Amino acid sequence: MEQKNLLLAIIFSVAIMLGWQAYFGEKPSPTPKKEASNTTNPTKGVSSDAPPAPGTMTKSSELPSLGQADPNSKTNDQTNILNASPRIKISSPKLTGSISLKGAQFDDLTLTGYKETIEADSKNVKLLSPVNGNSGYLATLGWWSTSQSKIPNKNTIWKANKNTLSPENPVTLNWINSDGVVFQKIISLDDNYMFTVRKRVLNKSSESISLRPYDRIVRYSTPDTLGFYILHEGLLGVFNGVLKEVDYDDLQEAGTNLIMPEKSKGGWIGITDKYWLTAIIPNQKVEVQPRFAGFGKNLDNYQADFTGTTVNVPAGNSQETVTKFFAGAKEVNLVVNYRDKLKISRFDLAIDWGWFEWLTKPLFFALDYFNNILGNMGLSILLLTVIIKLIFFPLANTSYKAMAKMKALQPEMLKIRERFGEDRAKMNQEMMALYKREKANPASGCLPILPQIPVFFALYKVVYVTIELRHAPFFGWIKDLSAADPLTFVNLFGLINWTPPEYLVIGVWPIIMGATMYFQQKLNPPPPDPTQAKIFMFLPFIFTIMLARFPSGLVIYWAWNNALSILQQYLIMRKAGVPIGGGKKT
User: Fold this and answer.
1) pTM attached to this predicted model
2) Separation CA 49–CA 268 (nearest Å)
3) How far apart are CA 138 and CA 127, in angstroms?
4) Residue 78: strand, helix, or coil
5) Could you say which architecture CATH assigns to the domain 49-352?
6) Which tens digits make up the pLDDT trace of 459-499?
């Protein structure tokens, strides 16, 4: 196989995959709008907490919300805001924070196991926060009613039987309306990130009441997102076994909202970041109406909610609904365990596995298995690379045998070019006759490389989106395999006290990768065409620049893969008697 065929195949394949992901990747499907005749007007006297009828398009002012953030309001100290309402503390191995007794809102949650940065004095990741100026991220699980029933709302002050919620100590919240109807929320928490809320209604009034379960997550202001097609950040959910993703951009037009018209049996709905997730999980055997919504004039406020079916509670009777609320890190094994143990429909799709999900998942679980043994994700990447090379060894062997045959034909190919150089059609005809006579296939050398392209993209996805690689160190200066190599030759790898612009940051591992690519080229004779030879000479330099800002874990994989390929190619070519680097046949 000619070096030209190999590299062009790789470059062409990478371009195809990137183009496919960018233009043909799975995007949020547009929700069909209802006809104008289906649009409903707000009913006077109905609480602002009440959602419109399922399947309708409404104006933002009619949407149920927890109150719109005010962009003109002054941002206050977070501590003062938290102290402004009575609260119960949250204390668990992975979560700290509090629940506001005003509205029974989950609006204060910190992840104790994760830092914002790799710096020693970095703060823990703050997931949920109360409304503060034009920001806030919170959830509430409750009820709504279109009747005259008096139900708790965002201003209701609940009473709690305990001051602290922990895995060992659930908390019961109580509120009684003026008719004597008792509303209860029994909140429990496991050792990880899953809350369970048992919502009870005890009708001690003299009349029947009707209401619907109504649970929602609200985010005020658009968070900073990466904006890559390789990763979804925004609203999402699984309904009737189908994943639905909605970008923030889809909901940013003032005065509009997006409704999921179809009802779902079970499923889940929420808001996701790269590594963090909030999700509401109803009873998986009950039909609910999901919805994604944007509200607030000139504000980017977002809401993901579920509405249950109407329930009538006769006088003297009670009714209970159980809903789960996930708020935490998208740890793969934990999310999969929740999916299996709690039977949550496709909950693992909260992690954006991408187009190569069938390959990305096995690669992650292999890395995770090796990491449990080696205790280092970087070493796990090296070991996984060796195994991948062994799997593809037969294909590589075929590739290098094809290279040997094509190398042996190079003198005759050169004669044909010299003889028919002016007649391209005749030259190609003679070339094809030569290939047929010698039973050589110029493409057979590069075709075995193509199956390895999905491996690269799948591993890129693993390194980029799984939290297990976030802040995972290797050795030396690599403290985070999900981030780019922090060093750069421009400031002599930190010896000069100067921080160069990002486009000049080319670290040690990208340089090592470029060097291995250069030496791999040297194993093969240069192309007969001088112009091609010059182009190929610059390819290692170009790839070094291209990969400089890639996650260091991926660059380490590529460099190590190149090193193994050099050894593999050298041994196979020696065994086959193929000239190495333009040398004579051994």
Assistant:
1) 0.83
2) 21
3) 9
4) helix
5) Distorted Sandwich (2.70)
6) 989 999 999 999 999 999 999 999 999 988 777 777 777 77
